[in-house]
Write a structure and sequence with these properties.
The chain has helices spanning 15-33, 62-74, 76-80, and strands at residues 4-11, 38-45, 52-59, 85-92. It is an alpha+beta fold and 93 residues long. The termini are close together.
Length: 93
C-alpha cells in the first residue's frame, strides 16, 4: 500500500484568520493524530512569521488520507478554517 505525503504551508492573512488557528488548531492536531492510518501530523509555526505554519503529514494509504479529509471538512476546524490559504503538495509513494 502506498503512503500519502502532504507538505506545505498554512497562512493566515488577517487577525481573524489567526484567531481561528489559535482556537481550533490544537484540537485538529490531536484528532488527526488519533485517526487510524495517520503516521505523522506536524504543524509548526514559522519562527519568523507567526501567521505562517509549516505542515507535514503522512498517512498509510489513499483510503486513510481520504477519511482524514472527510473528517476534517466536517469538523469545527474544517468549518472555520476554510478561508486560510493553503499551499500544499501531495505525493504518493
Amino acid at each position: 500500500m502506498a503512503k500519502v505525503y502532504l507538505d506545505g504551508q498554512l497562512v493566515a492573512k488577517t487577525a481573524a484568520q489567526r484567531a481561528v488557528i489559535d482556537l481550533y488548531l490544537d484540537e485538529h492536531i490531536a484528532l488527526t493524530r488519533a485517526e487510524p492510518g495517520c503516521l505523522k501530523f506536524e504543524v509548526t509555526e514559522d519562527p519568523k512569521d507567526r501567521n505562517k505554519f509549516h505542515v507535514s503529514e503522512v498517512f498509510d494509504s489513499e483510503e486513510t488520507f481520504a477519511a482524514h479529509q472527510t473528517r476534517t471538512k466536517a469538523s469545527e476546524w474544517g468549518q472555520h478554517s476554510e478561508k486560510l490559504e493553503r499551499r500544499f503538495s501531495k505525493r504518493v509513494g
